[in-house]
Specification:
By secondary structure, the protein is an alpha/beta fold. It has helices at 2-8, 20-36, 40-56, 74-78, 93-102, 138-148, 165-173, 175-183, 187-194, 199-209; strands spanning 64-68, 85-90, 107-110, 123-129, 149-160, 210-218, 231-238. The chain has a domain at 37-161 and 196-238: Rossmann fold, CATH 3.40.50.150. Strands 3-2-1-4-5-7-6 form a seven-stranded mixed sheet, with helices on both faces. The termini are far apart.
Length: 249
């Protein structure tokens, strides 16, 4: 059992900062890549994660729903619910401009995931799809989500199984091949710098503040093994505790 456990654990990642050239190219093209990842085989997996999170969010469709790291609005693109009281938050103004052009009239906030501009216990449901892998101070961000969530609220998460065997193999055949051929950059180095947390680290941090109520692996949900899938969706509820109120404004 100890051998199997060690085999399943993601290997420590040797992260190195991308070259200035590669990083400059990445900064120029990353917004286009966000949309490209929703095409082809990769897109099918990405969309499946959004739809699983959307199914879990159904009881909150008429309540206050906050999406942290909303990006271009892909979740709304593939959701079947209208989310009447939806709030989208992202740190990137260019992403929010694209979001607004696609979904005019939605309430969007340019904000910091480490200091959410919302009152304590004011949000019914928080969505985060393909975002936590990028967050360097993940514990701080999760503390803020725990603070703004109502005690009976839910955190619904979709994460790539970064560090898993199938995910790593699939990326080599799709986005890595595409990016290296088209732009000539060390895509592996860029991704490790961008994807700061693998799935095991994210789950560890989540369990500090939340209880996992439901888990779904994609695309092979009948094979509940992280290394044999590419997306993991989690349904969580806050652990009891009084979050420290933070003055807003």
């Amino acid at each position: 059992m100890r051998f199997l456990s060690s085999l399943m654990r993601p290997k420590p990642r040797e992260r190195k900062k991308p070259t200035e050239r590669d990083w400059a190219i990445w900064q120029r093209i990353n917004e286009d890549l966000v949309d490209w990842l929703y095409q082809g085989v990769t897109g099918r997996f990405q969309i499946a994660g959004h739809r699983q999170v959307d199914r879990w969010a159904a009881p909150h469709a008429e309540k206050t729903v906050l999406e942290v790291g909303c990006g271009h609005g892909h979740h709304l693109s593939f959701a079947r619910h209208a989310y009447r009281l939806y709030i989208g938050l992202d740190i990137e103004s260019k992403f929010l401009k694209t979001f607004q052009s696609r979904f005019a009239g939605r309430l969007l906030v340019q904000g910091d995931a480490y200091a959410l501009p919302f009152a304590s216990r004011s949000i019914d449901c928080v969505l985060s799809v393909y975002h936590f892998e990028h967050v360097r101070r993940l514990s701080d961000s999760l503390q803020e989500i725990h603070r703004v969530l109502k005690p009976e609220g839910e955190l619904l998460v979709g994460i790539p199984l970064e560090g898993g065997w199938l995910y790593r193999f699939g990326r080599r055949l799709t986005s890595q091949r595409y990016m290296e051929k088209k732009f000539g950059i060390d895509y592996h180095a860029v991704v490790l710098w961008e994807h700061w947390n693998d799935f095991a680290e994210i789950e560890k941090r989540l369990e500090e503040k939340f209880r996992i109520w439901e888990r779904r692996y994609l695309p092979f949900h009948f094979f509940p093994f992280p290394h044999g899938n590419v997306i993991q969706c989690l349904r969580l509820r806050p652990k009891p505790g009084s979050p420290s109120p933070r003055r807003i404004g």
